[in-house]
Structure formats: structure tokens, C-alpha cells
Structure prediction request, 178 residues.
Amino acid sequence: MDTVVAQPTLTTEHFSLRPVRRSDLTRIAHYCSDVRLASQTVNIPHPLPDGLIAAMIDRSLASDRTEHRWVMDGGEQEPGDEVMGVIALYNLDRNQAELSYWVAPPFANSHVASAAVQALVAANPLDIDTVFASVFHDNPASAKVLTNAGFAYLGDAETFCLARGATVPTWTYSLKLR
Prediction:
């Protein structure tokens, strides 16, 4: 049985953003085990270790969670039929959050990320003041997703990518929500 999470379901024109649930485990693990996806994230290692996605889902379902995840669900007939990606907000201090997202390889370059980011920031489900996000320099499409959603460039930084096993240069962005 899936735990009911007090987290809103949001809708876009073509899909919904619904809270992650345990039944998503197989689909999410399938996509996260793809090196193309993992190498564009900070915290998904490659190869994908057993139990990692289950632990992520457990953290997302915890009543005291600081990680809030939504599945980009493209199932038209039955919600949960099509996991297109995941978008998340991570609590920071001073009423701020960090945004991250990934889109499954079959849905890359289909504007799914843009629609998800725009829906999430418009809804502001955590009632935060500011949201931050970072993207790798070699992923300009993801930077475009952020700028199209109104994010402002803050500067360059670098972060360690588990899948690459290396430090990767990033662009950092922020968006004032109020």
C-alpha cells in the first residue's frame, strides 16, 4: 500500500505532477540506471546501487521530510502509467528551497522539464520565498528551462557528480517567488 502524502498534485496541459509513491520504484530505478540520465544529476550514481531509489522514496514519504518529490506522470487513462521524470524541492534555511529535476531519456527535448518547472514555481507548494537551482555547463538545455521559467543567473560554481566521479562546473540560478 502506498502512503498518502500531504503534498498537492499539480497539473500541466499534458501531464500531472503527483507525489512520488512506492509503486514508482521500478520505473524510477529503470530510468535512473541509465548513464545518460545519471551523468546529468548530482546525486544519482552509476551504476545504480540496490536500495538507493527505495531509500529516496522513503525519504520523500516521511512525515518529517525535507525532500519533496513529484513524479511527472503522463498516464492519461490511469495515473502512474507513465513516469516521465521527477522534480523535487529540498528545504533550505530562511524559507528557501533548492529545485532539481530529471526527465527520462524517452521524453528528453519534449518540453516536459519546462512545463514541470513552470507548474511547480507557479504553485509554490512549500510557500517559499526563493528557489535556487544549478545545472552543469554541458547541459545548456536545462539552463534554458530555468531561464524560461524566470530564474536569474547568479554565477558559476562546481559540484561533485556521483555518476561521473568528478567535479563538474555549474551555473547557479535563483527565482524570487515573493
